[in-house]
Amino acid sequence: MHTVLEAKHINKYFKKPVLFHVLKDISFKINKGEFTSIMGKSGCGKSTLLYILSTMDTDYEGELYLNDDLITDSDHLKLSYLRNKHIGFVFQFHYLLSEFSVLENVMLPAKKLAECSAEEIIHNAHEKLRILNIEHLASKRASQISGGEKQRVAIARALINNPSIIMGDEPTGNLDSYNSENVFNIFKELSEEEKLSLLVVTHDEDFAKRTDRIITMEDGRIVP
Ligand SMILES: Nc1ncnc2c1ncn2[C@@H]1O[C@H](COP(=O)(O)OP(=O)(O)OP(=O)(O)O)[C@@H](O)[C@H]1O
């Protein structure tokens, strides 16, 4: 089984206001197509861990592998490239640009990566909107669509560069139960049919129970 992401003995300390050992010897693997949730009480270190796994925080001890490559000591430019190419993000808040159209919002990470022609990017963005059943919204401004629709646009944007893994920080935290179910079903389908890996921090037990695996954290450690 191909491993998409591997954390080996990750430790993280916050140095201020006092020295605080926030992540303690975290090790796990995420395989291709695996849908994993991370749960744990507020303050146990979930977001801190996701920040490291998503390559945004480089101030940690231990090793991080992306598609079997050790990326821990990569410079910021390389990490920014790897992040954009291989990792899609879905947050609690959608972070869409409200004055841009839905299509333009979805295209943005592909423009940044600049590995496809403008025509290909438009074609790919339409394809992602079709997968998420929101192609009819393509020309609307992001400010003109509902909360549930915005989150689906955010997922389409996360998919645009065909990442190896989608990371979510409470992606259903702002949604009602209907839209949360919708997002869950989209993620499940992506993992089963596209063999996409998903790693989602959530407080929603119903959501987590239906993922392939729950990683439970307590006081900066993974509960064995
Ligand atoms: N920049 C920082 N400096 C010092 N301490 C921090 C910093 N950021 C977070 N912490 C502390 O680290 C711990 C873990 O925070 P983190 O945000 O990872 O928790 P979490 O599990 O994601 O919580 P929640 O479920 O409430 O989002 C908390 O005790 C928090 O107060």
From TrEMBL:
The lineage of its organism: Bacteria, Pseudomonadati, Bacteroidota, Flavobacteriia, Flavobacteriales. Pfam families: ABC_tran. PANTHER family: ALPHA-D-RIBOSE 1-METHYLPHOSPHONATE 5-TRIPHOSPHATE SYNTHASE SUBUNIT PHNL, LIPOPROTEIN-RELEASING SYSTEM ATP-BINDING PROTEIN LOLD. This is ABC transporter ATP-binding protein. Residues 5-223 form the ABC transporter domain. It comes from the Bacteria. CDD domains: ABC_MJ0796_LolCDE_FtsE. One of its GO terms (molecular function) is ATP binding. SUPFAM superfamilies: P-loop containing nucleoside triphosphate hydrolases. Keywords: ATP-binding, Nucleotide-binding, Translocase, Transport. Belongs to the ABC transporter superfamily.
